[in-house]
UniProtKB/TrEMBL annotation:
It comes from Kineosporia babensis. InterPro entries: Capsule_synth_CapA, CW_Biosynth-Accessory, Metallo-depent_PP-like. This is CapA family protein. Residues 1-18 have a biased composition (Low complexity). Pfam families: PGA_cap (PF09587). Residues 31-268 form the Capsule synthesis protein CapA domain. Residues 1-27 are annotated as: Disordered. Belongs to the CapA family.
Amino acid sequence: MATTSPVTATTTPEPTATGEVEQAPESGEARISFGGDVHFAGSSAAGLNGDLGTAFKPLKKADLAIVNLETAITDGGVPEPKEFTFRAPAKALTALKENGVDVVTVANNHGMDYGPEGLADTLAAGKKAKLPMIGIGENVTEAFAPFRSTVNGVDISVIGATDVLDNFALGTWTATDSQPGLASAKVEGLLAEAVRKAAAESDVVVVVLHWGVETQSCPTQRQRDLAAELKEAGAQVIVGSHAHVLEPYEEEGNTAIHYGLGNFVFYATKAQSIRSGVYDVVVDQDGVVDTKWNPAQIRSGRPQLLTGSDAKAAGAYLSQLAKQCGVD
């Protein structure tokens, strides 16, 4: 099911020992799980040995698991002119895949931290690891192409894009007809059009977005406006990252929006930045059926699930945050 460039991919049942294809039960529902920012820098590099934390348990159980890969996968390249640049070895992809991750989005403000060479290495590493990447490609068509999977009779398309790019990168990082790069939500109309096209071919469209303002827990007006535009275009699930702190989530009818998942495999240490978790969304052919937040806390660079009173307190925090931000 894997592909390195973000082109259409479909999950199919594995053949049995007799060579016949064993059909999965048609339950009519699929569970999609989301984790936040992953980069394997600093203390989070310990996860390269394969132990990524207990918060990956929900991802392993999901029908489809997605995280935001906020790093180039390369040993080469030249760092771009910015304060923070991240890169990780190819075994980072193996660690993610072995811990249940099915798809990564690389559409963020660190996806091309090591320039064109880093981009080429990232695409090659994804292909070798057989871990699908979205939001990145050899051209704009590939960058906006969805990952596609049919789970229990539900056709799902997942699109990745970034609404956050440094000024110097607006031209050089944005994928065009003739330039490799990232899927940019800043290019008027492209993301909504990609959603409309996917909605015509799928039951459920998921958009994974890099947006918002760092350390700001409440969604900006830009986030709210963009979410409304994407819902109108046909997206039922919209999940965000970038702020490095948790943002609230909301449900309306058969749609769900999580404005910001916060950090996941990350070198966070501050009280707000270590708040983490996994967002579960159950969908059927008509859209969102149910959602669940699995609270976690980052310890030594890796997310650990919370239980008991700690989990209860974490849930209360998100409820309070939703009220504070005016998110129902």
